[in-house]
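Quick one, T. Sequence first:
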Amino acid sequence: MTNQLANETSPYLRQHADNPVDWYPWGEGALQRAREEDKPILLSIGYAACHWCHVMAHESFEDPATAALMNEHYVNIKVDREERPDLDNIYMSAVTALTGHGGWPMTVFLTPDGRPFYGGTYYPPVPRHGMPAFSHVLQALAQAWREQRAEIERSAGEIAGHLRQTTLLEALGRGGALDEDLLDQALNNLLRTFDSRLGGFGSAPKFPPSMTLEFLLQIHVQRGDAMALRMADHTLTMMARGGIYDHLGGGFARYSTDDHWLAPHFEKMLYDNALLARVYLHAWQVTGNPLYRRVVEETLDFVAREMRHSEGGFYSSYDADSEGEEGKFYVWSAREVRDVLGPDAEIFMAYYDVDEQGNWEGHSILNTPRQADEVAAAFGLDAAEMEQRLATARQTLYNIRARRVSPGLDDKVLTAWNGLMLAAYAEAGRALDRVDYTAIAVRNAEFLHANLRRDDGRLLRSWKAGVGARLNAYLEDYAYLADGLLALYRTTFATRWFAWARELADLMLQHFRDEENGGFHDTSDDHEELLHRPKDVQDNATPSGNAMAAATLLRLSLYTGEGHYWDMAETMVSALYEPMARYPGGFAHWLCQAAFILGEPQEVAVAGDPSAADARALLDVVNARYRPNLVVAAGEGEADKVIPLLAGRDRLDGRAAAYVCRRFVCRRPVIEPSELAEQLDRSPTADS
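Structure tokens:
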């Protein structure tokens, strides 16, 4: 017998549909029942790729005795944090305030009107490591609800008041005018925590610092900062060589549990791979390191092959577990490798760190601690022959691995995360001249437009095959998708993508703007009423919705000449001067926007048919290098009605012409690629 979760879009919720717990999804039905029966709410928040969420489910939610306690005393609500980041934000803040730490699974006890009064994360079935048994918590809180109701109500009121006050403090404050000293302070603070031996920042667990690396590459390009490049280059290399990277199938795991990037938490998230593919692409453009291009292509090929719906949407994640064991799908024994590879096994094992003892729980996680030329020399091989033999071995082992029981796939499609991956494919298609990547990006944008955009232009959050789209979208859905669409426009110069990006920006301004404190709320003005209206400005695993909104507005201003886009974004970025300087790792995407503003960004308008040879020659100059402080438009005819940057730009002598501008003040137009290159590499100040 199933509960109320059977028809949800979230695979995480559907995984619990057969629990003996009478689960509800978050919604009026559950909340009304709690009010009518005057029962507390047990709110459980997690996500499909969460290892400890599965552990608690097996230990407690599948146990009839525990379920009986839950059903008798509580109205039980299950939430997928990926579908409902608003609820996750609110109640994670509560758990952190109550316990000093947070995480998933998150277990929160609420009054019938949604105010938290007790909470934690994972609870074991028996007392363990100082944690109470889950059944004891259930019984104790049920008794307190009956006998100490007034105290619970008082506590819930205090916690709710604290959360509302915290939200006010999260409002964008009064910062300082942006200056180069901000960038210097941020770089110095990053350098203090930089692991010069192993790469990354701080100690284990190490998460891929995608946005920090983007900032460092941008600063290197903008200011020629050698140390910024050193920190980025070393970190990217160590991650690509570590076990956090899937050397057979491509793509990155969520994080490394050790300092060496060896032993990952094996879940693979769409957003990580989108952000990492993009930063490795930029690093390849800056350094020319072929390893980085290989990582980009293997990662995007993995997503296209294994994380994409046939209609074009990208799935959310792969679980860490298969057959109930974390990492089982990915690890190898020396015997397995020898049996499969035969005479090439010793070369493969020497390079990929496979031996009899293993490097993780008796098995081996593939990684490359030795340099390829060192291993090649040991076996008397030249580099080309060794790489050919390793490539054959990797494909053979990949084919064998594909026969194993695969980790669980979370096949819901989230608008925000798709926007991140859309940008990665669009940029890679352009920079690598991969028309297949561009086609994947276009198909994805078309899918999102057809399935996750309402007729009035508003977005929905989540889609699943056979269920369709649902849930009101959040700020990050609008901002990430707008960013992806601008990247797609820059690759295809199809004006429909630019027009959609601008529509999304205007909808952000209409429905999410915080008129009182600046910036944007995470939820729209017609979102359901919650304990409070969340507003998070810190970058976490993904950019904050506010930071990405600022990025979109800055670029749209350069395309359109609309000063109010720029003014609002610059005010938002400036307001975070102090936290950007002191905590650069937590505000790295904001720092990218600060660097963009300080870098005197340029606009390039190419008048002509973007597919014609003369225009392509000019665009090839623009695309030849990583130029983070640039927006580009190309087209003729009706295009200038959609993109004001193109207005009044004409061909010269019948040939495509390029106009290099700053804030719509342009240099003399040029038709020769060499002249365009000279203008781009000079100061952006317009010719007098």
